[in-house]
Design goal:
The chain is an alpha/beta fold. It has 2 domains: about 250 residues, Aldolase class I (TIM Barrel); about 70 residues, Arc Repressor Mutant, subunit A, CATH 1.10.10. The protein contains 15 helices and 15 strands. The strands form 3 sheets. Strands 7-8-6-5-4-3-2-1-9 form a 9-stranded mixed beta sheet, sandwiched between helices. It has a 3-stranded antiparallel beta sheet with strand order 10-11-12, with no helix packed on it. Strands 13-15-14 form a 3-stranded antiparallel beta sheet. Helix 1 links the parallel strand 1 and strand 2. The protein starts with a strand and ends with a helix. Keywords: 4Fe-4S, Chaperone, Cytoplasm, Heme, Iron, Iron-sulfur, Metal-binding, S-adenosyl-L-methionine.
């Protein structure tokens, strides 16, 4: 079964480091955006996209700017159209600070069963630096309210390697985060992306590479000691609480993306990546005219599909399943990638029928993975 991603490109205020497509100047367009998503879903279904969907992920932007009734209407359209699996994982990204108990209860009642909370820091000074609209107290409140509303799967996003941040400061962040006792944690090192306020000169100074590595090691040891499995470069989970939607990305499972700026992956043949242009006005006008806004980005040949299978699989603790690779491509992983495997001798391990990197190799993943591309 496949996944469904819905991009909600609205924010109350853009963060200076964020390069995801979103706008903070047109919140009035939220009123009927869910209807545009449903219209695109209908066009995609007519074009051959099939369900039932095993996972649904509302990302952004700030999906929690939509009312639960709007999200529920979308889910009803999905269920009535391509379909939802009986045990579908349905995630919504939320920001702390403005969500009431009633909102969370209504969200749970409409079928959402997993929350991804944009915490980013457990330090009020850092939250102000990041231009976030919440504080640490708001984080604690929203987690408590989510539990009371019946959510049993909660994830928190945290950032590290912030300008001026020290390992000691990160240690405090981690302890405060662990007090929340969420099932899942995603932790990302800050990167300065072109086109963002922080990506333009003068850029803020980030910690040196040595400090970054120390912080990453610190995160790994503290979270695994607390009972989380380090199952992907930036992701940790209690047993059984891994994000099924993201696992689908790393396994090259089909995923339909709806919304301005959304990306899709079609798994037919050797695979194809598609995207909706990141332009809300164009998105609206095309759908109003009955035109499918999705455009092809890349069609894979067999070799490209094999390389991407390695690229994505080696991000995960499971790694690349060599038997599944053989079945999919009709050839041996070790034969296809004999040269890079020889050059990386000692960096990859063979265990349980898989080839994988250890977490220390993930620190230099971008350099190591180039051997496979």
């Amino acid at each position: 079964m496949s996944g469904l991603y819905l991009h909600i490109p609205f924010c109350r205020r853009k963060c200076p480091y964020c390069d995801f497509y979103s706008r903070d100047d047109c919140l009035d367009q939220l009123a009927d955006y869910h209807q545009l998503l449903i219209r695109q879903l209908q066009l995609a279904t007519a074009a051959g996209w099939q369900g039932p969907f095993a996972t649904v992920f509302f990302g952004g932007g700030t999906p929690s700017l939509l009312a639960p009734a709007q999200l529920g209407t979308i889910l009803e359209a999905v269920a009535a159209g391509p379909g939802l699996a009986a045990d579908a994982e349905i995630s919504v990204e939320i920001n702390p600070g403005t969500l009431t108990m009633n909102y969370l209860e209504d969200l749970r009642a409409c079928g959402v069963n997993r929350l991804s909370i944009g915490v980013q820091s457990m330090n009020d000074r850092r939250l102000r630096q990041l231009r976030r609209l919440h504080d640490v107290v708001a984080v604690r409140k929203v987690v408590a309210r989510a539990r009371a509303a019946g959510f049993e799967q909660i994830s928190c996003d945290l950032m590290f390697a912030l300008p001026g941040q020290t390992p000691a400061e990160l240690a405090t962040d981690l302890e405060r985060l662990l007090e929340l006792r969420t099932e899942h944690v995603s932790i990302y090192g800050l990167s300065l992306e072109e086109g963002t306020p922080w990506g333009r000169d003068p850029r803020p100074a980030l910690p040196e590479q040595e400090t970054y590595a120390e912080m990453y090691e610190q995160i790994h040891h503290r979270l695994t000691a607390a009972g989380y499995g380090h199952y992907e470069i930036s992701n940790f989970a209690r047993a059984g609480a891994e994000c099924r939607h993201n696992l689908g990305y790393w396994r090259r499972t089909a995923c339909l993306g709806l919304g301005a700026g959304a990306h899709s992956f079609c798994s037919r043949a050797w695979g194809q990546r598609l995207a909706v242009p990141p332009d809300l006005d164009s998105y609206r006008s095309m759908l109003t005219a009955g035109i499918d806004p999705m455009r092809s980005l890349e069609k894979f040949d067999r070799r490209g599909a094999m390389a991407e299978t390695a690229y994505l699989g080696l991000r995960t603790a499971v790694g690349v399943d060599v038997a599944a690779f053989q079945e999919r491509f009709g050839c041996s992983f070790d034969t296809v990638f004999n040269a890079p495997l020889e050059r990386l001798a000692g960096q990859l391990t063979a265990c349980d029928g898989c080839r994988r990197f250890g977490w220390r190799q993930w620190l230099i993943y971008d350099r190591l993975i180039r051997e496979f591309l």
